[in-house]
TrEMBL record:
InterPro entries from the UniProt entry: FN3_dom (IPR003961), FN3_sf (IPR036116), Ig-like_dom (IPR007110), Ig-like_dom_sf (IPR036179), Ig-like_fold (IPR013783), Ig_I-set (IPR013098), Ig_sub (IPR003599), Ig_sub2 (IPR003598)
GO cellular component, one term: plasma membrane
Subunit structure: Interacts with PTPRG.
Domain Fibronectin type-III: 614-712, 717-814, 819-898
Topology versus the membrane: Lipid-anchor; GPI-anchor
Residue span, Ig-like domain: 56-139, 144-237, 249-330, 363-424, 430-510, 514-601
Main function: Contactins mediate cell surface interactions during nervous system development. Has some neurite outgrowth-promoting activity.
Molecular function, one GO term: cell-cell adhesion mediator activity
One protein family per Pfam: Ig_3
Protein name: Contactin-3
Length: 1043
């Protein structure tokens, strides 16, 4: 029996067709049409009930003399704009001098703590209904004055304890207590002997001293209004009749035995004891755990504060007061209180429903304790006939009077939350304006068509279709026609009826021939690099244009972004060409053909054969000095079986990867292991495996970890053993050192053995350096150029290896004992001297010039780069491998004067036919220069050469069609003089005659333009032009000619 439950705690409600309203007499015309909410363009233009955007909340306002106004906020949106009312403590507020509305906000003028404190609620209303806000508790913080009545004198013995009562005046809001002693400007300092409780405001003095005599005033300050009140002084006097003796602590201020604390809050525990001597205060937990590091202990251990309370902070806390007479303990338990604030899990949404429909709403909220629910309609509790305990509201067969604003209220002991929604009941005749039957429907013969008929109607309309034939009307009024034939084409009309009217909508069904793929793509195999064409041709209704699309592995091919794919064919063909096929092109290809009526598709698979992928899991097994065991796993074969595997190796001494010999010599594709042979001992190797098939050679595997073969005795002897030379008494032996990769182990070195030719005893020496390539044996008793048999062997820490073949090496010879004879010289120019001499037997010549020496093997030497008009002393001595002999007597020789420094000037040239005529001024030598003996004309073209003359003119016979560079130098006994610089003679066409004559110092010519520098005078410019024109520079004036 749920009737005994108070309506305020009703959790689930089902409304019958009667909800406190009389429904009879409601008439709705058949032409009434209500638009659905979705048809409105924006929330601003949509008409809807009120929705709160700002609600009042619990508040404490400071009540000060200068504050004469208080605002309580409330704001709602709606169309039309809502109007507002307010309640306080359940009753409506009459707007008067104290209350005013500012938009939706409530303004309280000259608030009074007693008259205006209470529980406020905002009500917003428009034509669609009413909603109420959450309840807000409004309080005012204030502090009244103490009574001015005088306080009694407190008499106390020295050593006794005393408690001075504060007795605060009426107040609201957080306050703070302090005490003033003898009217001093500062507050009384608290210590282990004096304590002010913030719970009672009392002053506790554990042990009175003579200095405590005086007047004590309690000071109370409101933390919100900052108002302060002072009590009347309490006089404290000292009794002289006796002195209080020592006694054990008595805890006068202590915390509750049990205290519930919520998560994240801050809790303060007070503890203070009276006693003589003054007790000390300590804190601890009874479970033995240490106090949390965040704990604060203030006022000489009289207050313990735990900020940000967590579950682990819960437990029993002890305050221990102790002095020399004993101790006392106060205990209290802090209990963690798990409070979850109310919040919506499932809220309400506005609904627009057709008349006679069934409404069901559900709201769910989470919180601890578990919430209970109430329902409101337009701000008032619902009049209910049936109740259910699950937060649901059900209204069967709704009518227009059920429209309005509904609110679900979830509440527990910690508060309440509201959820609002609007119910609009719609009644209208069938309307096809927003969803008519499709005007024209194309369908292929043999297919199926579904015609939808979804008019807007409230209540829901009954549907019928006009036209004969086999068809089915689905539950929502949809018409389905299967296995369509040509006879099914035509017009179809949907007729909709409800109590408010009838309406219809017509569409036409057009039957087309189905599309068929006549040439589908076929699965095919291809090799990497080839190109193929996958066909796709269709037949179908000629009035329909097919659209071809190709998919590769489920993804549409974008031909604008794919280099390998191209669609070829027009009309009924859409073939796919795949160019330069790669392994990534293996997969499924689908040709999909779309028309406005139907879609068909056909699929084929392309298998691409390519070189095998890289083998995997390469492992190096047993290793010896010359072999290594390898094993691996096969990689992808890319649709062509692996035929063979080859193994490659790399060392620090090799250039890249090199093929190595294996056992078996050719590793078949079914074998995944092999032995690498002929490796060098004591060398670091990396290996990789390469697979091959009938298509080609694949990618190599990842290289193996670097391994080192075991050491062994060296097997390679030094090569190119030779020797000879050195100084007297030396035998020099040379050889090519063994490369590091052939040394086969550590501590590698050489054993050098030698003996005089014809003897049997070998002399040996050991060279411990692997880089040694020369050994010199010194003994003054060794005759010059005597023969020795020599061999060089090798060794390492594993033993001694082979020696080279025995070769014969000569010891060093003696240095020459006499100088060359008949030394004479010839001066060639200012910078060159030639020296001649008679050689000595079996020696090489050496020529000296001051501090410089020139070594030659002939009987003559050319000294160049000398200074002109300079005297030189020249001597010659012989030298061989043993050293140099004595020098010949010095010979004096003087170089010739330097050549003329001035180049030929005023050069003139004429080019006509195949001859170049040159002329220039004579060069006059200066006093310290050699006289001019002639001139040298050099010609540079395809064939270079030079001519000499004693005159200042010359004619050169040259072929046409080439450019020439000509330079002129003066000749003298001292050598060639300064050059005139290059003179460029332009090529002459064989068809047109170019006759030019210039007096120039320097001239450059390229293509058909001149670049001229320093032209002192112009003789003439006669040009027979070619068709493209040319240019002649006359005294810095450009003259252009064009035929």
């Amino acid at each position: 029996d749920l009737t005994e439950l108070p309506s305020v705690f009703t959790q689930c409600i089902i409304l019958s067709s009667v909800i406190g309203f009389h429904r009879s007499g409601v008439v709705v015309g058949s032409k009434v049409k209500l638009k659905r909410r979705s048809s409105f363009h924006s929330e601003r233009s949509a008409r809807h009930g009120p929705v709160f955007t700002q609600e009042p909340s619990d508040s404490v306002f400071p009540l000060r003399s200068e504050d004469n106004k208080v605002f309580i906020n409330c704001k709602a949106k709606g169309n039309p704009v809502p109007h507002y009312k307010w309640k306080v403590d359940g009753g409506y507020i009459d707007m008067d001098l104290n209350y005013n509305l500012v938009e939706g906000n409530l303004l309280i003028n000259h608030p009074h703590a007693t008259h205006h404190g209470g529980v406020y609620q905002c009500i917003a209303t428009n034509v669609f209904g009413t909603i109420v806000s959450r309840e807000a508790k409004v309080q005012f913080a204030y502090l009244q004055n103490f009574s001015r009545k005088s306080r009694n004198t407190v008499s106390v013995r020295e050593g006794q304890a005393v408690v001075l009562l504060c007795g605060p005046p009426p107040h609201n809001g957080e306050i703070k207590y302090s005490w003033v002693f003898n009217g001093r400007p500062s507050f009384l300092l608290q210590d282990t002997r004096r304590f002010v409780s913030q719970r009672t405001g009392n002053l506790y003095i554990a042990k009175v001293e003579a200095s405590d005599v005086g007047n004590y005033t309690c000071v109370v300050r409101n933390m919100m209004t900052n108002a302060t009140a002072y009590s009347s002084p309490t006089p404290v006097v000292l009794r002289r009749d006796a002195v209080m003796g020592e006694y054990e602590p008595k805890i006068e201020v202590q915390f509750p035995e049990s205290l519930h604390v919520t998560k994240g809050s801050s809790v303060k525990l007070e503890c203070f004891a009276l006693g003589n001597p003054v007790p000390s205060i300590t804190w601890r937990r009874t479970d033995g755990n240490p106090l949390p590091g965040k704990i604060k202990i203030n006022h000489s251990n009289g207050v313990l504060e735990i900020p940000y309370f967590r579950p682990e902070d819960a437990g029993v806390y002890e305050c221990v007061a102790e002095n020399s007479r004993g101790k006392n303990v106060a205990k209290g338990q802090l209990v963690f209180q798990s409070v979850e604030h109310l919040q919506w899990v499932q809220t309400l949404k506005d609904v627009h429903m057709a008349i006679e429909a069934n409404l069901q709403w559900e709201c769910k909220a989470s919180g601890k304790p578990k919430p209970v629910y109430r329902w409101l309609k337009n701000g008032e509790p619902l009049v209910l006939e049936v109740r259910m305990a699950c937060g649901r509201l059900a209204v069967p067969r709704i009518n227009l009077l059920d429209s309005g604003m509904y609110q679900c209220l979830a509440e527990n002991e910690h508060g309440a939350i509201y959820a609002s929604a609007e119910l609009k009941v719609v009644a209208s005749s069938p309307d096809f304006s927003s969803s008519p039957v499709k005007k024209s429907m194309l369908i292929q013969r043999g297919g199926e068509v579904i015609m939808e008929c979804r008019p807007h109607a409230s209540p829901r309309a009954s549907i019928s279709w006009r036209r004969g034939g086999e068809r089915t009307i689905m539950g929502d009024g949809t018409l389905r026609i299967s296995n369509i034939s040509e006879s099914d084409g035509g017009r179809y009309t949907c007729v909709a009826r409800n109590p408010f009217g009838t309406s219809s909508s017509t569409g036409t069904l057009v039957v087309k021939e189905p599309t068929k793929i006549t040439v589908p793509p076929l699965s095919v195999d291809a090799t990497v690099g080839e190109s193929i064409v996958l066909p796709c041709e269709v037949s179908g209704d000629s009035s329909l244009d097919p659209t071809f699309k190709w998919f590769f592995n489920g993804k549409l091919i974008d031909f604008n972004r794919q280099d390998h794919f191209e669609m070829i064919g027009v009309g009924s063909a859409g073939d796919l060409m795949v160019r330069n096929i790669q392994l990534k092109h293996s997969g499924k290809y689908v040709c999909m053909v779309h028309t406005v009526v139907d879609s068909v598709s056909a699929a084929a698979h392309l298998i691409v054969r390519g070189p095998p992928g890289a083998p995997e899991g390469l492992i190096v097994g047993e290793i010896t000095d010359s072999t290594a065991q390898l094993s691996w796993e096969s990689g992808p074969d890319h649709h062509s079986p692996v035929t063979t595997y080859s193994i490659q190796a790399r060392t620090p001494f090799s250039i890249g990867w090199q093929a190595v010999r294996t056992v078996p010599d050719s590793v078949p594709g079914q074998m995944f292991h092999a032995t690498v042979i002929d490796l060098n001992p004591w060398v670091d190797y990396e290996f990789r495996v390469v697979a091959s098939n009938n298509v080609g050679v694949g990618e190599p595997s990842m290289q193996s970890k670097q391994i080192r073969t075991k050491a062994a005795v060296p097997e390679v002897a030094p090569s190119n053993v030779s020797g000879g030379g050195g100084r007297r008494g030396e035998l020099v032996i040379q050889w090519e050192p063994i490369p590091e990769e052939l040394q086969s182990g550590e501590e590698f070195g050489y054993v050098v053995a030698f003996r005089p030719l014809g003897t049997s005893t070998w002399k040996q020496t050991v060279l411990a350096s692997p880089d040694a390539s020369r050994y010199t044996f010194r003994n003054d008793s060794v005759p010059p150029l005597s023969q020795f048999e020599v061999k060089v062997g090798v060794y390492n820490n594993k033993g001694e290896g082979p020696s080279s073949h025995v070769v014969v090496v000569y010891s060093a010879e003696e240095e020459p004992s006499e100088p060359p004879s008949r030394v004479w010289t010839r001066t060639l120019s200012a910078s060159e001297i030639e020296v001649y001499w008679e050689p000595i037997t079996q020696t090489e010549g050496m020529q000296e010039s001051d501090a410089e020496m020139v070594r030659v093997t002939d009987t003559a030497a050319l000294l160049s780069g000398l200074k002109g008009s300079t005297v030189y002393l020249i001597s010659v001595r012989a030298q061989n491998s043993a050293g140099a002999g004595p020098s010949s007597p010095a010979v004096n020789v003087t170089t010739k004067k330097p050549p003329p420094s001035q180049p030929p000037g005023n050069i003139e040239w004429n080019l006509t036919n195949s001859k170049i005529f040159l002329s220039w001024e004579h060069v006059k030598a200066m006093g310290n220069e050699s006289e001019v003996t002639g001139y040298k004309v050099s010609v540079v073209s395809v064939i270079a050469g030079s001519l000499k003359t004693r005159k200042q003119i010359m004619a050169l016979q040259v072929p046409s069609g080439e450019d020439y560079l000509i330079e002129i130098k003066a000749l003298s006994d001292g050598g060639d003089g300064s050059s005139s610089g290059p003179i460029r003679i332009p090529k002459m066409s064989s068809k047109r005659e170019l006759f030019l004559s210039f007096t120039i110092h320097r001239m450059n010519f390229w293509h058909n333009r001149f670049k001229v520098s320093r032209v002192p005078s112009t003789k003439f410019c006669l040009i027979t032009m070619n068709p493209t024109g040319t240019m002649c520079l006359l005294k810095s004036v450009f003259v252009f000619f064009r035929s």
